[in-house]
Design brief:
The chain has 638 residues and is α+β, with helices and mostly antiparallel strands. It has helices at 5-19, 26-42, 162-183, 240-243, 253-256, 304-310, 336-348, 365-368, 386-404, 500-505, 518-528; strands at residues 51-53, 79-81, 90-92, 127-131, 147-148, 214-222, 234-237, 247-251, 266-268, 273-279, 285-292, 318-324, 352-356, 372-375, 381-383, 411-415, 441-442, 452-453, 477-479, 484-488, 491-495, 509-511, 566-568, 576-580, 584-588, 593-594, 597-598, 600-606, 631-637. Strand 12 (318-324), helix 7 and strand 13 (352-356) form a beta-alpha-beta unit.
Length: 638
């Protein structure tokens, strides 16, 4: 990163203080490295220089001679780079025609750094993380899975008044408080008899003074309006109906004292709904003796009849691939990482591929310039919207894939991102859709007849190599909202493309946690809070975080109704695949591209259940699917 040893030492000192880290290990180094890269990106200039490139290339297949695909090094180019800083001009060719490569603008992401190039990457195909507790063998594509997900109803978003937002927050606190009370068997103060033994003290409203131990349910808040949550700025907020919205200071010092029996680990963040057992003698400060950090939702119900429908033979299983954007490097819009990923799909032919955004990244310097143009012939350039860029770079590659592989049965699931230029900037996020109805509108421009303005071009993929009226064939492209809970055969998968792990990591107060448990702890919060985004308020937009426009009136749409078998949480934090809360396998596949370098993607092999577990049983008998014991996950470099 071209920094001096003194600067490196100062950066480590600041990182260790902010993260409450005492030593540098393999686990803590990953977070320190991410902070260094984020700080370097925030110092990057916002303008890039333009170049004129005299070369064209086709959209043919990339063939690999065994092993993972590698992007070949670029051919010799004649490049004329101007000295002055100007707005770059990006050339995009029409659909199904030769594509002109984007000018190779010099990288301005890490100023003065030896930035690695995607074409020069090493160890492509290497495994960086894995989960395979029972040493299962990889699977091949076996069958056509059935994908189930809830269709999103159209609604008006961001039309909420302050009263609506307050009502939504209070409703969430009351309803989830009842769930915590039920799971931990917390009795009301008037329902508990003197001789009855309970695990926790009697339930009391927040702010009511008591000389004995009580249990209060409330939301964690930050006493300071700005800054990171810490151990001295904790507040517990009660509901409006029972506690009149009262807030009291939360003293967690007994949890940190090694000489007391109350010493225990904890992890708190703003918006978290918890149950606290302690003493509130004055009515203004609750001294905590025990913390309950939420309650996981119930598992999805699976019956023997459904298993008979999904598995016709014991040999059937599923291969699922997943990755997250950006899908192109920050110095061009050629989408080479996506092309290499599709080459891997050609070779492995998975049953399902889950792609999470951003697909057209609004943080990309060439997209931010707003000068994405198309050559309409005779050197005339015409600007195109972001939807046309998506059609040229995403839809065209997917369409070409199904044209080249006639018998390919892979189904794609597309999840939008808040940084997508082609999606709504609101959470929860509607699925990707055309801006104009009926597949957009074709403009009467020379050499641009195949471009549908206002359309993402995804509707063309369904008809490739299919006869008209072939309605029995499964759908190839599934556009789902962000977040979503879908079911592929018997496997329940929870997905959110928003980097909620990074947001919570930046605003968390913890203590007495075992080393190496940070990533599992953050993922566990999502399940225990039954929410894909339990953090409130969301972080302020800055160089490290993107703002999240929460539509609190639609809060129920990002709730987690059941505990998923697989939880996909793409993040800029270290990639991982591990089991949390006994039955859920959490996966961070990483990003397909990082700056100008390559990234990672994940491959999941879900082995079938043994027939003896469900064969011969009644149709309505519930079955434990045990996905955590029959799945192997590998996170690989692109």
């Amino acid at each position: 990163l071209s920094i001096t040893p003194t600067q490196l030492a100062e950066s480590w000192e600041a990182h260790s203080i902010n993260r409450n880290i005492s030593e540098l290990t393999d686990v803590t180094f990953a977070g320190f490295r991410n902070d260094l890269l984020s700080d370097a990106e925030s110092m990057a200039p916002s303008t890039v220089t333009s170049g004129a490139v005299h070369e064209s290339s086709g959209l043919g297949k990339r063939h690999a001679s065994g092993g993972p695909s590698q992007t070949p090094p670029p051919k010799q180019r004649r490049v004329e780079i101007k000295e002055e800083e100007v707005t770059p001009r990006v050339s995009v060719s029409p659909l199904k025609s030769k594509l002109s490569p984007v000018p190779p603008t010099p990288s301005s992401i890490l100023k003065g750094a030896n930035t690695p190039k995607y074409e020069e990457r090493k160890n492509a195909g290497a495994t960086v993380a894995s989960y395979n507790p029972h040493s299962l063998a990889p699977l091949s594509s076996s069958s056509t899975p059935r994908i189930f997900y809830r269709q999103v109803e159209k609604c008006r978003f961001m039309f909420t008044t302050p009263q609506d937002r307050a009502n939504a927050l209070n409703k969430r606190l009351v309803e989830f408080g009842k769930r915590i009370q039920e799971v931990y068997n917390i009795k009301d103060m008037y329902d508990v008899e003197e001789d009855q033994e309970v695990a926790l003290a009697r339930l009391e409203n927040v702010g009511v003074p008591r000389q004995e131990k009580v249990c209060c349910i409330g939301r964690i808040c930050n006493e300071a309006h700005e800054g990171k949550l810490n151990r001295t700025s904790l507040l517990l907020e009660g509901s409006r109906h029972q506690s009149n919205g009262m807030r009291v200071n939360l003293d967690i010092s007994p949890l940190l004292d090694a000489n007391l029996e109350t010493r225990s680990s904890f992890s708190l963040f703003p918006g978290q709904i918890v149950a606290v057992e302690g003493i509130n003698a004055s009515g203004r400060k609750l001294v905590a003796h025990k913390l309950c950090e939420g309650a996981a939702p119930p598992k999805a119900v699976l019956t023997a009849g459904e298993m008979k429908e999904f598995y016709k033979s014991e040999k059937e299983g599923m291969k699922i691939m997943t990755c997250a954007g950006p899908y192109t490097t920050m110095d061009n819009l050629e989408y080479n990482p996506l092309s290499d990923l599709l080459q891997q799909i050609r070779e492995e032919q998975p049953d399902v591929v889950i792609l999470t955004g951003p697909f057209v990244d609004i943080k990309h310097p060439l997209v931010q310039s707003g000068n994405v143009e198309i050559d309409v012939g005779e050197g005339n350039m015409s600007k195109i919207p972001h939807e046309a860029l998506f059609a040229q770079r995403i839809s065209a590659l997917l369409e070409q894939l199904f044209e080249d592989e006639e018998g390919l049965g892979t189904q794609f699931v597309l999840v939008p991102h808040l940084d997508d230029a082609v999606a709504e900037f609101v959470y929860p996020q509607p699925p990707l859709s055309d801006r104009l109805p009926k597949g957009g509108k074709q403009l009467n421009l020379s050499s641009a007849e195949a471009i549908d303005f206002g359309s993402l071009g995804l509707h063309h993929i369904e008809s490739v190599n299919r006869q008209p009226g072939q309605s029995t064939a499964p759908k190839r492209i599934h556009c789902v909202p962000n977040p979503c809970t879908l079911r592929i055969n018997e496997v329940t998968i929870g997905i959110t493309s928003t980097d909620v792990l990074f947001h919570m990591n930046c605003d968390e107060a913890n203590g007495n946690l075992p080393p190496g448990s940070r990533l599992a702890r953050l993922t566990q919060h999502l399940i225990q809070q039954q929410s894909y985004y339990p953090l409130y308020p969301p972080p302020v937009s800055n160089a490290r975080n993107s703002s999240v426009n929460l539509d609190l009136k639609q809060m129920e749409k990002w709730s987690m109704e059941c505990q998923p078998d697989i939880l996909i949480v793409p993040s800029k934090l270290t990639t991982f695949a591990r089991k949390v809360l006994d039955t859920t396998v959490a996966i961070n596949p990483g990003q397909l591209s990082r700056g100008t370098a390559g990234g990672t993607y994940a491959v999941m092999d879900v082995h079938p259940m043994k027939r003896s577990l469900w064969e011969g049983k009644e149709e309505d008998v519930e079955i434990d699917d045990g996905v955590q014991d029959r799945i192997c996950v590998e996170i690989k470099r692109i």
